[in-house]
């Protein structure tokens, strides 16, 4: 079932649930690949790989959110044949949110949980100079500031000349996207935030709750904006707990249903 749009590092036969993970701006499947071996039994990790990276390196990256999400929906539909959880970091959270909007609009299966990581709520207005409009020099300086790209990559002019179109397309998505609609998903939302993230203050993370009917849970994580890389074990431990809680909940429901059938 694997195609260019996603990578399954450790296929799970008859998986009970899929964890679908979307990357941050400029990121790819590498962030999530090592997670697969650390997830509970029965969980299959699906790492989304948008055009412009990995096996999609020769394909231009999307700079239009609607086109990206429509293409993602078509590619990911076969993966929605069983329970799943959506996880996205930074830009990935907003792409995941728009994907969720499409699922509800098309009356498709919704995720069991929605996990937003390192991102302000989708209705947050941008107040800073759009990164995608900066000169190459300013753009690279901003990448250095947010500390999401290795210094040796930023210093490699030949490599950066290859990566800049992808990075600019992704940052254009991040700069121009803002959700202005009205929606309430019948889901629980968990939001992860870096305690030292200057661009995504912890006090703003509860705003994600505006779009969900069930509880919003905010989880502070040590580190800055890219805590998903620097504090990987902490993030995976949290994700494992959420998956285990879901599994216990499902098993409890099955036991209650079985007991009810016996007493009829």
Automatic annotation (TrEMBL):
The alphabetized UniProt keywords are: Hydrolase
Query: Where does the Thioesterase domain lie?
Result: 18-239
Annotated InterPro entries = AB_hydrolase_fold, TEII, Thioesterase
**Cross-referenced Pfam families, in alphabetical order?**
Thioesterase
Molecular function terms in GO for this entry? hydrolase activity
Q: Which domain of life is it from?
A: Bacteria
Please state which protein family the record places this protein in: Belongs to the thioesterase family.
Looking up PANTHER family in the UniProt record yields: S-ACYL FATTY ACID SYNTHASE THIOESTERASE, MEDIUM CHAIN, THIOESTERASE
| Protein name listed in UniProt | Alpha/beta fold hydrolase
- Cite the source lineage: Bacteria, Pseudomonadati, Pseudomonadota, Gammaproteobacteria, Chromatiales
């Amino acid at each position: 079932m694997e195609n260019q749009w996603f990578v399954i590092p450790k296929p799970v036969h008859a998986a009970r649930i899929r964890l679908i993970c979307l990357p941050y701006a400029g990121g790819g499947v590498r962030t999530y690949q090592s997670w697969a071996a650390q997830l509970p039994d029965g969980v299959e990790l699906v790492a989304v790989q948008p055009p412009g990276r990995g096996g999609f390196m020769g394909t231009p990256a999307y700079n239009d959110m609607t086109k990206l999400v429509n293409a993602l929906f078509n590619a990911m539909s076969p993966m929605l044949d069983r329970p799943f959880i959506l996880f996205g970091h930074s830009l990935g959270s907003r792409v995941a949110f728009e994907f969720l909007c499409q699922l509800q609009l098309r009356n498709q299966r919704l995720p069991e949980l929605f996990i937003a990581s390192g991102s302000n709520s989708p209705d947050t207005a941008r107040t800073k100079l759009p990164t995608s409009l900066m000169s190459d020099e300013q753009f690279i300086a901003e990448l250095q500031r947010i500390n999401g790209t290795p210094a040796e990559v930023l210093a490699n002019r030949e490599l950066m000349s290859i990566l800049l179109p992808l990075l600019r397309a992704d940052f254009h998505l991040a700069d121009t996207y803002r959700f202005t609609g009205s929606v309430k998903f019948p889901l629980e939302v968990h939001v992860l935030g870096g305690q030292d993230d200057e661009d995504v203050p912890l006090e703003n993370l509860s705003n994600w709750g505006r779009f969900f009917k069930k509880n919003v849970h905010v989880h502070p994580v040590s580190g800055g904006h890219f805590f998903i890389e620097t504090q990987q074990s902490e993030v995976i431990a949290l994700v494992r707990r959420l998956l285990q809680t879901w599994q216990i909940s499902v098993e409890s429901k099955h036991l209650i249903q079985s007991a009810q059938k016996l007493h009829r």
